[in-house]
Specification:
By secondary structure, the chain is an alpha+beta fold. It is about 35% helix and about 45% strand. The protein is built from two helices and three strands; from the N terminus they run βαββα. It has a three-stranded antiparallel beta sheet. The longest helix has 26 residues. The relative contact order is 0.30.
């Protein structure tokens, strides 16, 4: 098993629908998650399957004295079931 944690903060516009912006941020997170197995197979595994995922999305106003603006932060963890490359086991011995 491999677990990866991600956090991404995207700017948000106060004059746009908050739910739509949160959904867009979650979609970005899921795109990153979907590519995780591909990266694992390119580097350390023969096979990979996402078997679990948690996400948390938070909107916040970081506007302090006119600076910073609003943002949506998505954090989460991905759990992947992998079959590690045999060459990795030989290198460790």
């Amino acid at each position: 098993m491999i677990q990866s944690s991600y956090s991404m903060t995207l700017p948000a516009k106060d004059d746009q629908d908050a739910a739509a912006q949160q959904e867009a941020a979650l979609r970005s997170f899921y795109k990153v998650a979907a590519g995780s197995c591909g990266m694992v197979v390119e580097t350390v595994a023969d096979s990979c399957e996402i078997v679990g995922m948690t996400t948390n999305a938070n909107g916040r106003n970081r506007n302090f004295d006119g600076y910073g603006g609003s943002a949506v932060t998505v954090t989460g963890q991905i759990t992947m079931k992998v079959k590690f490359k045999a060459s990795l086991n030989k290198a460790a011995q």
